[in-house]
Design brief:
Butyryl-CoA Dehydrogenase, subunit A, domain 2; Butyryl-Coa Dehydrogenase, subunit A, domain 1; 386 residues; four-stranded antiparallel sheet; 3 domains; 12 helices; 47% helix; alpha+beta; four-stranded mixed sheet
């Protein structure tokens, strides 16, 4: 197996890094302090074409693979920036690409590729059902040529900075569904015309991550905005989860390398008791161990991305990549914080901001316990734990 990057992939990594370097740490500190969306950064990525690499060339994208997409997101986080503000723009459109009609693809994908349309929000999670997607209560009732949607969603990210949103709703009540995973449907909602039918309430969180609670009342969704087959939305959604897992793993790996670089640099120049603290095994060894964990997770990420691009079943690898990468990143975050000591708590170090951001990935977009449950039952053949 060849683990070397191609010349084009190396050029891509360099170009993304150069773009990110035009947004210095002071930019991210200010956005974090004021809880602002990094609009300028997202616009720059969009205009450069980095967020449309997975869209086929016939619709205006670069037509590249998951490996290239993962390199882009890794490099964003490795630069000290954060890709969570826009990463869904990469993979959410996959639902249109895989399950949309020809008319839907031609109507939306070129605009998404150009950056004229933002599709970077998924309305799935609900307060009562949490990770048990089959138990969501938001319901879409077909009346004539439109669905009338009512319900509630929570922790729905980037709604205020999206034009479109993928919405998951039941079209058959849970009790009447043939299987609990059936009767769910996937819709494309135009947020620009939702009006009073969609009430958005921001949720303040540990990190500067635009997320919201949604109250949906008599939202009219044209029948033509149904993606795929009615009642098969759960399965349509599953198609995109491997891509999401791989790309999130890449972000974690980028964060991990950033923490390692920061810890190494500080350990070299911080002198206590007459010598750099990096000479002390108590400082040096944890950094080396965290680096090893990042490298190992990195290899699984590349394996998953390679399999995805070859059209192979990569559910196991994609889930392991997200699991290992998020845990390795969190390990590196703690190592960096410990290496910096009290200075790590200072905002100007940037460590405390990235420390908070990296913690999110242990829980979202899927909790690691759910991944362990998947591996236990689907890979190892154990009884389902949930």
């Amino acid at each position: 197996m060849d683990f070397e990057f191609t010349e084009n992939q190396e050029a891509m990594r360099k170009a993304v890094s150069e773009l990110c370097n035009t947004f210095p740490p002071t930019y991210w500190r200010a956005k974090d302090k004021d809880r602002q969306y990094p609009e300028e950064f997202v616009d720059a990525l969009t205009k450069a074409g980095w967020l449309s690499v997975l869209i086929p060339a016939e619709y205006g994208g670069a037509g590249l693979g998951m490996l290239e997409a993962s390199i882009i997101l890794e490099e964003i986080n490795r630069s000290g920036a954060t890709a969570t503000a826009c990463h869904a723009q990469m993979y959410t459109m996959g639902a249109i690409l895989r399950h949309g009609s020809r008319e839907q693809k031609e109507r939306y994908l070129p605009g998404i590729a150009k950056g004229e349309i933002r599709l970077q929000s998924l309305g799935l999670t609900e307060p009562e059902s949490g990770s048990d997607t089959t138990r969501i209560k938001t319901f879409a009732k077909l009346e004539g040529d439109s669905y009338i949607v009512n319900g509630q969603k929570i922790f729905i990210s980037r709604v205020q900075h999206s034009d479109l949103m993928l919405l998951v709703a039941r079209t058959t009540p849970f009790e009447k569904a043939e299987k609990k995973t059936m009767g769910l449907s996937l819709f494309l909602v135009d947020l620009r015309s939702a009006g009073e039918s969609l009430k958005v309430s921001p949720i303040e969180t540990l990190v500067n991550h635009e997320t919201n609670e949604l109250q949906i009342q008599d939202l009219v969704v044209p029948r033509e905005n149904l993606l795929g087959k009615e009642g098969m939305g759960f399965y349509h959604l599953l198609d995109g989860l491997n891509a999401e897992r791989i790309l999130v793993a890449a972000e974690c790996i980028g964060d991990g390398y950033w923490f390692i670089d920061k810890a190494v640099s500080y350990a070299k120049q911080r002198v206590i008791f007459g010598r750099p603290i990096g000479e002390n095994q108590g400082v040096q060894f944890p950094i080396a161990e965290a680096y090893s964990s990042i490298r190992a997770a990195d290899l699984v990420r590349y394996k998953a991305a390679s399999m995805f691009d070859q059209g192979k079943d990569c559910g196991e690898e994609a889930n392991m990549a997200k699991l290992l990468a998020s845990e390795a990143s969190w390990e590196a975050a703690n190592v960096a914080m410990t290496t910096y000591g009290g200075y790590g708590m200072a905002v100007d170090s940037d460590v405390e901001r990235k420390f908070r951001e990296s913690r999110l990935f242990l829980t979202a977009p899927v909790a690691n316990n759910l991944i362990l449950g998947y591996l236990g039952s689907h890979t190892l053949g154990l009884q389902r734990s949930f």
